[in-house]
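haha ok so turns out i had the wrong file open the whole time. this is the CORRECT one, sorry everyone. sequence first:
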Amino acid sequence: MSMSNKTIKGFSKLNKKRKIEWIAENFHEDPDSIIELLASFWHPDESQQKILDGFSENTISNFAMPYCIAPNFIINKKAYTIPMVIEESSVVAAASAAAKFWMKRGGFRATVINTLKVGQIHLTCDQDENEIRKFFEENKHKFKSSCKELLKNMESRGGGIKNIGLVIFKEENEYFQIRMAFETCDSMGANFINSVLECYAKEFIDTHIKVYGEKSRLQIIMCILSNYTPECLVRSEVCCPIEELGEVADLTALQFAYKFKKAVRIAEIDPYRATTHNKGIYNGIDAVVLATGNDFRAIEACGHTYACRDGHYRSLSHCTIEEGIFKFWLEIPMALGTVGGLTNLHPLARISLEILENPSSRELMMITASVGLAQNFAALKSLISTGIQKGHMKMHLSNVLHQLKATEQEFMLAMDHFRDKIISHKAVRDFLNKLRIDPSKGSVD
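then structure:
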């Protein structure tokens, strides 16, 4: 296949059928089969597919992800059934197991600490720092007034600009920024924030030109919200007397509690462990964020930045044992919305919010943080007792059997055969091959 066949001009202007044909003709040995496969994932309702196509650019099909349910979450004494979108096989099982474990021990207690989001106007100017500060302080509320039409609806709901400040960076000559704190109520608010920032910046530069005339050498570099929202913070925790933890595998409740605490402490001091530890937290968080039509990339970027806010990447969760009480918690920044964007457009996102009984953005923050904590608890519980591979490999076996097109009977026999054996793709394939040669055996040793 020549290089010229793999490049194309005006791809976005092609209709969907021609896009698919070009992909099939240039990147697949059997074009008809790839066209059929891509079409098989289209939504059968044409109007729904049009909505899905509109979410992105150059859409040719839908990428299916498992839409799952984790029941039995008790959060602030209320029962929740949690929708989760994730392809990692053990995550939903682990979250459900942790929910069931803590359901009998008071459940999760969650609270929203704050919900402020951040927007930034980045500027350059060769003026003296004191002169810039003086100009800003004398005019900052005038600039805000220029945005009143954009702010009106949000302010009527209790939101809007909550704080405006000037930040001077010593590390970069002639650079400063205007940093704003926003309350966006139940919306994530990205478009609202960016629109206000651009409006404010225009008034800022227009006024600067009026005041300084030809001496004004102010330049706007960019206006954009920040996905780092350390003041949009939620906390979730579980706690109980140590003895109520019960025996876990071969560990007494006391042994389990102290071993668990040590595992969390390791993640607080070692960034290699902290990375995997926090990834486990986001296994749960991302799954809920995806299911509700929110931006999991922004949520993760913010959380990982928060994890190294003191200059050292650390665990997002923490554990204490004091006066016989085991406590496990996390505090995590999380800017979520329940109105606007995909939350209203995506059919399954709407269903997810209905299953969660139409929470506010604050309630969704508490739900999502609690699922992250549950996921982290389940992973650590396995790691310090039976080991992580027992559950993982069981699910891996299921995936391999599906890949090898095992029948229901073969599935059951394989599950029984590998109960106490090392699982590998080759071992499973050999087992099935032998079984298919002589199915009357019923099992193969």
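DSSP finds 16 helices and ten strands in the chain.
again sry for the mixup
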